[in-house]
Design brief:
single chain; mainly alpha
């Protein structure tokens, strides 16, 4: 392992852990502004995490060791997923593990554990949220895989670093396959991160909530880890989208100056992406939970169409 690769990997992890709550605060600010409301502070997610980490965790008597360990497992999965996405540099020691299938597997692993923890206590809300979460994941994961496979057909590899290096050196042109994949990825990202129109991250209504129903029984540091993990998941999905569809500005191997410039480029792209997400949520309406399968099926079909278009044009 070279020193430059080690520095790049550590910097990616630190940036992900530090910027993930900031991205959440940025999106919340823009949502409030677009809805003509008083916006919360940009640092509000950090204050919430600080408050929760300083509170005691209240755990039900019927909770098993699984319930207590799940926040650490979910947080670890999201931190690892954020660290293997090439956001600042493609020279990453974890690059061999940065495979598209492994990345989707990390998201699936976190989903399974948090669903099991929600059902562990035996409350009706936990079981309701777990069933809805598994339904969304069952439909969203194949669509995400098809999106990643559409990009892998261009780069001839399922490695995320290879995808970024290949797409960044391509001539500026419109790829119909990536256009279909981009729309599908946007739809999957909204569903996977509990955003409108699939879920509302600000609601506590039992008839509509999905993510909030999973974490109702958590408090203190456990809830802080889960909230931080949710921000990391949004950060990871945002960085996947930037790596696949806007890969420019990512440093390559043995390029210290490019690594320094990659950080402000990443911040600028995330700022624009956060504004776009807030606009999408403001313009869209919350759909019924029973319409979510149709929404994600459309995303899957668009991703498959992207693959077919690439195969047809390549012949």
């Amino acid at each position: 392992m070279n020193v430059y690769g080690f520095i790049s990997q550590v910097l990616e992890i630190v940036v992900a852990l530090a910027l993930a709550p900031l991205l959440t605060g940025w999106v919340n600010q823009w949502r409030a502004w677009l809805q003509n409301k008083t916006a919360p502070s940009l640092w509000q997610p950090y204050r919430v995490l600080h408050k929760l980490f300083n509170k005691d965790s209240v755990v039900a008597d019927s909770a098993s060791p699984l319930f207590r360990s799940v926040p650490y497992i979910v947080f670890g999965c999201m931190a690892l997923a954020s660290s293997i996405v090439p956001t600042l540099s493609t020279d990453l020691p974890l690059a061999p593990a940065a495979d598209a299938i492994a990345l989707v597997g990390l998201f699936a692993l976190a989903r399974v554990f948090i669903s099991l923890a929600a059902m562990d206590i035996g409350t009706s809300f936990g079981s309701l949220g777990a069933r809805r979460e598994m339904l969304i994941g069952f439909l969203a994961e194949p669509a995400l895989l098809m999106v990643l496979f559409s990009a892998s057909l261009i780069s001839k590899s399922t490695s995320l670093t290879t995808m970024v290096e290949t797409l960044a050196h391509q001539e500026l042109a419109i790829y119909p396959a990536l256009a279909f994949a981009g729309v599908a990825f946007t739809m999957v990202s909204l569903a996977e991160n509990a955003r409108i129109p699939v879920d509302n991250p600000a609601t506590h209504l039992e008839l509509t909530m999905i993510h909030e129903a999973l974490i109702l029984e958590y408090s203190g540091r456990h809830l802080a880890l889960l909230e931080w993990a949710a921000s990391l998941k949004l950060f990871a999905y945002s960085c996947i989208g930037l790596a696949l569809f806007f890969p420019w500005g990512v440093a390559e191997a043995d390029a210290p100056l490019a690594l320094v410039l990659a950080l402000p480029v990443l911040v600028a792209k995330l700022a624009i992406g956060g504004m776009a997400l807030a606009v999408l949520e403001t313009l869209a309406a919350k759909m019924r939970i029973f319409r979510a399968p149709e929404f994600l099926a459309a995303a899957f079909l668009l991703a498959v169409l992207g693959m077919l278009v690439h195969i047809l044009l390549a012949q």
